[in-house]
Write a structure and sequence with these properties.
This protein is an alpha+beta fold. The protein has 6 helices and 11 strands.
Length: 207
């Protein structure tokens, strides 16, 4: 798959599928609990960036594998992003700033194309703003050694291959229990939970 920035922008301006897409990759016990329609007024605000870039005629995106630590997101595969700070003028600035801090990609190298649906993560009580950005060439990464164990690139086309979608048991560090969840298993990388649910909406929008 390769789309121009104009085509990507046009797709992101269409009505978003939201929960309909999220449900496809939702852990089974999360379905009723996580996919709430009401805005959680007490939730902390954050933003993430789905960074897209072309390589060899393919459209690719970037994930990070978080470092191991005593916390609910330890070792997880996620998109770059983090908590909104009062010094951030807008939420897209939060997403760009966090991307710079976590993987070292300069803000001026990324064009924001649009947004996906907001996503509420109950274990950490974060309402996440999801931005889609584009780099005209493969980014140069300088990962933060404290926060990021590794940077993971995935071809968007690989997500559409049903052979890369499975379901298995994972250990939830936020709930301290084992749960069954759908996941994308690509090149020995397993993407599940909130990240997989957000990917699912991206795929439906692009398709």
């Amino acid at each position: 798959m390769y789309l121009s920035t104009d085509e990507l922008k046009q797709k992101l301006q269409l009505p978003l599928p939201g929960a309909k897409s999220h449900l496809k990759m939702a852990p089974r016990h999360h379905i009723k609990e996580e996919l709430v329609n009401d805005v959680i007024s007490s939730a902390k605000k954050s933003a993430i960036l789905i960074l897209l870039f072309p390589e060899s005629g393919k459209l690719k995106t970037v994930f990070i594998k978080r470092s191991e630590y005593e916390g609910i997101h330890s070792g997880q595969i996620s998109f770059p992003g983090g908590k909104y700070e009062t010094t951030d003028k807008t939420f897209d600035i939060t997403a760009l700033r966090e991307t710079k801090e976590e993987i070292g990609v300069d803000m001026d190298k990324i064009e924001i194309l649009g947004q996906l649906s907001d996503f509420y993560i109950s274990p950490s009580n974060f309402l996440v703003k999801v931005f889609v950005g584009y780099s005209p060439q493969r980014p140069v990464y300088i990962p933060d050694k404290k926060e990021v164990q590794s940077v993971v690139e995935v071809n968007i086309d690989d997500f559409y291959d049903i052979r890369n979608i499975t379901e298995k048991e994972f250990y939830s560090t936020s709930r301290h229990i084992k749960i069954n969840a759908p996941c994308y298993s690509i090149n020995n990388v397993e993407i599940w939970g909130a990240t997989a649910m957000i990917v699912s909406e991206l795929l439906d929008v692009l398709n």
